[in-house]
Amino acid sequence: MLFHARMNFFRLLCIPEKIIPRSFRKFNIRANVSTKLITFDATNTLLHFREPVGMQYSLIAAHYGVSLDSNIVNSNFVAAFKFFNETLPNFGLNSSVGNWEAWWTHVVKTTLRKSGAECEEKVLSLIADELLQYYSTEKPWVVQQGTESFFLKIRGSGIVVGCISNFDPRLVLILNRLGLRSLFDFILTSYEVGETKPHPRIFSEALRASGIYALEAGNAMHVGDNVNLDYHGAKDAGWDAVLFRKPDQPRTKSMASIPKEDIVTTFDQLFDRIR
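RESULT FIELD:
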């Protein structure tokens, strides 16, 4: 608060920012920055899995006497998730499957069966229930390095911060248990909105949820790890966009048309991008 008071004092005196003492401006976001809203994807942007999904599935299955190869489980999980995401999108919303819990139960059981699980149906159900509970906690998740320091830097800048993610309703609970919920002005999941990224509706809903009167898409920025869902989804909605990648991830063909300045690997780089 004191920092921002001093910055406002300098501006009231019409003192150019370049001659303001560095100690007062090193974390400052320019008053004329066009970005009024920043939204973040969750998985693989803010959060990462602590261990591969196949490993955790195998560990919990072992509690019920079901022995599986974690690498095989991981491959089958990816295939099962892809299949159900395409045939029953958005975690089964508005489909015959019923709800997101039933959708995930189908994913888990299919993964385990394809991986060689030989057990009764009720055992598969018990494993699925425990996995659903486990992934609702903070235990399987790791927060991206630099997340909290980034939010501290932009706090007080006037920029509204949101999270929009293709996720089931557990996201708010997970962020809360990780101590991140208070960092966001709003959180929207695809399940809540009724559309998944890259559909423009989830981006327009974010503009509304920001609470900024007459906010234009051009004053909003989305940050995420997926080229199509996050970067192009936001761009097609008229937003600014930044692709967040791991430092060791190679540049792929799908990234060929993305300017280098729109790709970051750390939150420090992202902070420099919005100043």
